[in-house]
Amino acid sequence: MAIVKSDLLKQLKKNFPNFQSKDLDRLIVIVLDEIKLTLKRGERVELRGFGVFFTKTQKARISRNP
Q1: Is the Cα torsion angle 10, 16, 22, 28 positive or negative in sign?
Q2: What is the per-residue DSSP string for the chain?
Q3: What value does the mean pLDDT of the chain take?
Q4: Is 44 within 8 Å of 50 (Cβ atoms)?
């Protein structure tokens, strides 16, 4: 299941009606930026009840486009 930022914003707005949309949008941007920065450092990100993000380096291989 894929989720886009706008759907996440709508869900947060529905669950937290007292917050303004621009504040919730800024929250999403901050969280996603922190996840990206952590992955760039090579660290693991675990969101309990949601999932785990980590980077994996693959060896180079020779391939061709049939």
Answers
A1: negative
A2: ----HHHHHHHHHHH-TTS-HHHHHHHHHHHHHHHHHHHHTT--EEETTTEEE-------------
A3: 92
A4: no
Rounded Cα distance, 15 and 10, in Å = 9
| Residue range 43-62, pLDDT digits in tens | 999 989 989 999 998 899 99
The answer to whether 9 touches 28, Cβ cutoff 8 Å, is yes
Residue whose pair of structure tokens reads 């901050």 in the numeric block: 30
Q: In 3D, which of 14, 57, 5 has the Cα closest to residue 35?
A: 5
d(CA 16, CA 20): 9
